[in-house]
């Protein structure tokens, strides 16, 4: 039995939950968001990823209602959000600092939003109990925020923002304050809760691993623009720009000149170096500058010259030992550095290569991605 | 050893500057008036040896404390002081909270300036500042002149030498003591708490009542004690601005000391005042400690 793939962004019939239409946001002279148009669909886990100052937080604050777009409109379920104040929106936010009310117990924090809606008492109690169960904090209901751990506080913040069953939940760097190990566990928990509740999540993060783990689609942002919004796999395997390729994961970028050859292009990148070949559907003029982006794990490293078209000779400059993997930095004769990664299936003492070794690097015609800029 | 010395310094300080003077006052309160220098008996005579010390203690009694209960002036003065301190503290809070709130929500680069403006009056003599209110509040003062020229009143208002003038003086003088702790509490507050409250469905006003106000509670309590405690024993403000009807224990104390030269009764009044003040001081300490625990 095949599962139906969740890809509403590829379905022309699907109605988006959120639509940004030519949204621009300026703070004085500074352009925080530059004329952006994109859609987010129901039940999506959408990640806004980018370095600090790229506009991802502004994007989120506009969704929450704390900022208004300077130009353009944001629609939530087809309705213009601009005139609706934050306290009237079916949108809740989980703050980076968690923003738990220090004078209220965990229970009262979660009930806070429900009480504002003047729901009957037993309904509130039932909903709070449900939320406490969801985040496994039943035992801590009467504690104050300063009496629980950071991870527990994070879960209280999540429960509080989910309590009102919002159409859209915004998460601002939700795991930023947790240590690495706890962060990993919490990432899967987040995905789990998102699937259980069926709420649309928009997460802001600068941690690409986090974005890749949790999100159904990742939007890579830079300078107020979304550079690419796609599934984690496509972002990684098929970046549309050098910026995205470079921002996500480890990559070697080789700049050269393209010449059409069969299904792809030949790339001349330096004098005295062999011509590389990469398959690509993109259009390049003969002699046009192109960038070949190649992931280190797709580069093989051997002692003898391999029998493939893309083979380069170099010496090992550096080895980064990561435990399960080792990344070799190999310097070619023209000083170009190429990264190659191998799995450490053998014990370290039996490693085949070491510093200053002369090695061959090779990859297939389809391993690299050819980009314009 | 080093620790012991470190701890000994503040204890010595308390002993020399608080406990010893207090014991002297307590001793005088148990003495009798005398036409002598100092104006009370007995005085301790060590040259008479053990006998002298015994004779000294035999002469001490609670006569002056009994006297305080026979004349209703004293308990009326205590009560009136408490009432004036309560009302004045409340008025100071009303005036100070919006100022502290405004300071805390002002842009960062403005705050040091605003803080300076609150503290600046302290650089002038307290006496001169209170005295200048006489010029403002008197029948021919600036306030009446202004109101008359604006046509708001046809007869000058009598403010000076009434309790109203005393309240104005106290609120003016003690305002910084109320503003600063409230400002400190508000300034520490995470701004995202208000956004969170709004996000969860609060209007600005309910967010204030449910989040800002409870979180500034400790600052309010601290400020109230800082105003209430010194106000009870206040002497300068009621004697400069208050009238003959303004009854405050500080004034009574002064009159006993300097007009009647009755040091023993004056000391007894001071000892009772201290006992009354111990209650709010203990409460204040407990509030501070609770706050520290909540933060720790």
Automatic annotation (TrEMBL), chain A:
<keyword id="KW-0547">Nucleotide-binding</keyword>
<feature type="domain" description="ABC transporter">
    <location>
        <begin position="18"/>
        <end position="248"/>
    </location>
</feature>
<dbReference type="GO" id="GO:0005524">
    <property type="term" value="F:ATP binding"/>
</dbReference>
<dbReference type="InterPro" id="IPR013611">
    <property type="entry name" value="Transp-assoc_OB_typ2"/>
</dbReference>
<keyword id="KW-0067">ATP-binding</keyword>
<dbReference type="InterPro" id="IPR003439">
    <property type="entry name" value="ABC_transporter-like_ATP-bd"/>
</dbReference>
<protein>
    <recommendedName>
        <fullName>Spermidine/putrescine import ATP-binding protein PotA</fullName>
        <ecNumber>7.6.2.11</ecNumber>
    </recommendedName>
</protein>
<dbReference type="Pfam" id="PF08402">
    <property type="entry name" value="TOBE_2"/>
</dbReference>
<dbReference type="GO" id="GO:0015847">
    <property type="term" value="P:putrescine transport"/>
</dbReference>
<comment type="subunit">
    <text>The complex is composed of two ATP-binding proteins (PotA), two transmembrane proteins (PotB and PotC) and a solute-binding protein (PotD).</text>
</comment>
<dbReference type="InterPro" id="IPR027417">
    <property type="entry name" value="P-loop_NTPase"/>
</dbReference>
<keyword id="KW-1278">Translocase</keyword>
<keyword id="KW-1003">Cell membrane</keyword>
<dbReference type="GO" id="GO:0016887">
    <property type="term" value="F:ATP hydrolysis activity"/>
</dbReference>
<dbReference type="InterPro" id="IPR003593">
    <property type="entry name" value="AAA+_ATPase"/>
</dbReference>
<dbReference type="GO" id="GO:0043190">
    <property type="term" value="C:ATP-binding cassette (ABC) transporter complex"/>
</dbReference>
<dbReference type="InterPro" id="IPR050093">
    <property type="entry name" value="ABC_SmlMolc_Importer"/>
</dbReference>
<dbReference type="InterPro" id="IPR008995">
    <property type="entry name" value="Mo/tungstate-bd_C_term_dom"/>
</dbReference>
<keyword id="KW-0472">Membrane</keyword>
<dbReference type="GO" id="GO:0015417">
    <property type="term" value="F:ABC-type polyamine transporter activity"/>
</dbReference>
<dbReference type="InterPro" id="IPR017871">
    <property type="entry name" value="ABC_transporter-like_CS"/>
</dbReference>
<comment type="function">
    <text>Part of the ABC transporter complex PotABCD involved in spermidine/putrescine import. Responsible for energy coupling to the transport system.</text>
</comment>
TrEMBL record, chain B:
<feature type="transmembrane region" description="Helical">
    <location>
        <begin position="77"/>
        <end position="101"/>
    </location>
</feature>
<dbReference type="GO" id="GO:0055085">
    <property type="term" value="P:transmembrane transport"/>
</dbReference>
<feature type="transmembrane region" description="Helical">
    <location>
        <begin position="113"/>
        <end position="134"/>
    </location>
</feature>
<dbReference type="InterPro" id="IPR035906">
    <property type="entry name" value="MetI-like_sf"/>
</dbReference>
<comment type="similarity">
    <text>Belongs to the binding-protein-dependent transport system permease family. CysTW subfamily.</text>
</comment>
<protein>
    <submittedName>
        <fullName>Putrescine/spermidine ABC transporter permease</fullName>
    </submittedName>
</protein>
<keyword id="KW-0813">Transport</keyword>
<feature type="domain" description="ABC transmembrane type-1">
    <location>
        <begin position="78"/>
        <end position="284"/>
    </location>
</feature>
<dbReference type="GO" id="GO:0005886">
    <property type="term" value="C:plasma membrane"/>
</dbReference>
<keyword id="KW-1003">Cell membrane</keyword>
<keyword id="KW-0472">Membrane</keyword>
<dbReference type="InterPro" id="IPR000515">
    <property type="entry name" value="MetI-like"/>
</dbReference>
<feature type="transmembrane region" description="Helical">
    <location>
        <begin position="263"/>
        <end position="284"/>
    </location>
</feature>
<feature type="transmembrane region" description="Helical">
    <location>
        <begin position="12"/>
        <end position="30"/>
    </location>
</feature>
<keyword id="KW-1133">Transmembrane helix</keyword>
<feature type="transmembrane region" description="Helical">
    <location>
        <begin position="220"/>
        <end position="243"/>
    </location>
</feature>
<dbReference type="Pfam" id="PF00528">
    <property type="entry name" value="BPD_transp_1"/>
</dbReference>
<feature type="transmembrane region" description="Helical">
    <location>
        <begin position="164"/>
        <end position="186"/>
    </location>
</feature>
<keyword id="KW-0812">Transmembrane</keyword>
